[in-house]
Amino acid sequence: MANRFAHLFAALALTVAGMKAAAPDACTLLSPDAIRQATGQQVTNSKITAAAAGKVRQSQCFYSLASFADSISVTLTTPSGLSHDAAREMWERWFHRDEEGKDKDRDKDKLRGKPESEEEEAAAKAAPVAGLGDEAYWVHSFVGNLYVRKGNRFFRISLGGKLTDDERQARAKALAAVALKRM
User: Is the overall model pTM greater than 0.85, yes or no?
Assistant: First the structure.
């Protein structure tokens, strides 16, 4: 019996180690060369940050470009632990709640003094984008944001600078096509 528990403990340790090794890294989605091809500018620096929030992990890579205002941010959201559908559920909550559900949730949050998240607020303005991943949405704010889901994971590419919204969207789509190949 003790041998069986030792075997199970060893298997659990390997699973946990594998989960830690498989932590998301948004900087692996785009190479400096892919960014140079899409923007015409060299990446001068990249910085990775990561955090776990509830049942999801997020990894963000900030690519500084020669013209800092044109810098690019990529955020990868994946499920954490054993909750394989958490990132997909977040996506569904952001992009697929019906209008009645959105209004009810918004009213409940206001009563509790809870503001909407920036992402949920942005998703309300989302326009579908065909041909990328399983689903994709473009959200224009003071920057352009392309959200792309593939399976139970998704990423956001944010572009700023002095581009038109159409130019930002074209660059984001080109970068997303590269990122999808690396997911």
Answer: no
